[in-house]
Specification:
The chain has helices at about 1-10, 15-35, 40-50, 80-100, 105-120, 125-130, 175-185, 210-220, 230-245, 250-255, 260-265, 270-285; strands at about 135, 150-155, 165-170. The chain has about 290 residues and is mostly helical. The protein has two domains: about 1-50, no CATH class; about 80-270, Orthogonal Bundle (hpI Integrase, Chain A). Belongs to the 'phage' integrase family.
Length: about 290
């Protein structure tokens, strides 16, 4: 049990929540084996000369102590880093067009995909499973047309439960413009009119999360950005930048689908400039008369 748990951490680099889930499955199975109501003890004694015992204990399993268990090294993009990343993604489209080589459509799709991750604060898997019809109108934001709200149907699920759905309201007009241009002018050129997926491939399939990750890593490394930046960092950036812009914390929590405010809090890494500005505002009343 100890060696197996260590391999999940050291060799496979799994998240604590994933390891705890695996350990919980083993724990439930061993409880079933040693429960006298099922008769496995005597059966094993007769067949093997020994009996099953519990192997999962408090000292060799991971306890659920925190609301958030993500990688502490993961951080959001700074605004400058994010702008460089999105500009580079756009540049790949122009390079493919000028060189008259294949890949221009895929590059345009991926540039838009990253903008949607940031524009609506999505996870990678949520993004890959979006359909065209998931966008809808918001009566309170008519300026966005049919892209005023996004129905996320495959949100992160709790253990043993189906994916959680949520509606994310559009707040960034430039992101709306980008996805509208992609849907109306670029996606039809893939020849997948009957395919429901928002992100389609040249082979008429749905873009997979692993493909999103591969493209992200290629762009990040080409720009020599820090390795700590991962696809999920774009979602972190959504929370951080909206916080810096003064958006209500509860609204952000609902947008990203967090039940606990503590989960949203761990996503918030506001910049030094923001902290200094906030400090100045907090101290202003005290020094107003000096």
């Amino acid at each position: 049990m100890d060696e197996w748990s260590a391999s999940l951490t050291g060799e496979k680099h799994l998240a604590p929540s994933t390891i705890r889930s695996y350990q919980g499955d083993v724990q439930q199975f061993t409880k079933f084996l040693i429960d006298g109501r099922y008769g496995w003890g005597p059966t094993c004694e007769d067949a093997f000369g020994t009996h099953p015992v519990a192997i999962c204990h408090e000292w060799n399993t991971i306890a659920h102590l925190n609301d958030y268990e993500g990688d502490p090294e993961a951080r959001p993009f700074t605004r400058e880093e994010l702008q460089r990343f999105l500009d580079y993604a756009d540049d790949q489209v122009e390079r493919a067009v000028k060189s008259k080589r294949k890949g221009a459509l895929a590059a345009y799709r991926d540039a838009t995909l990253f903008k949607v991750i940031y524009g609506w604060g999505l996870r990678r898997t949520e993004t890959s499973k979006l359909d065209v019809v998931d966008f809808g109108r918001n009566a309170k934001a008519r300026q966005f047309g049919r892209y005023g709200t996004l129905n996320v149907r495959y949100g992160k699920a709790k253990k043993g439960q189906p994916p959680r759905r949520r509606n994310v309201l559009s707040v960034m007009d430039w992101a709306v413009d980008a996805v509208q241009d992609y849907v109306e002018n670029v996606r039809p050129r893939f020849g997948c009119e009957d395919h429901p997926a928002l992100w389609v491939t040249e082979r008429r399939g749905r873009v997979k999360p692993s493909e999103i990750n591969a493209r992200f890593v290629a762009y990040r490394d080409a720009l020599k950005l820090p390795k700590e930046l991962v696809p999920h960092s774009i979602r972190h950036s959504y929370v951080t930048h909206l916080t810096e812009d003064g958006v209500d914390r509860r609204f952000i929590q609902q947008q990203v689908g967090h039940e606990c405010d503590s989960s949203t809090a761990i996503y918030t890494h506001v910049s030094d400039d923001f902290m200094n500005t906030a400090l100045s505002k907090a101290l202003a009343p005290a020094f107003a008369g000096t």
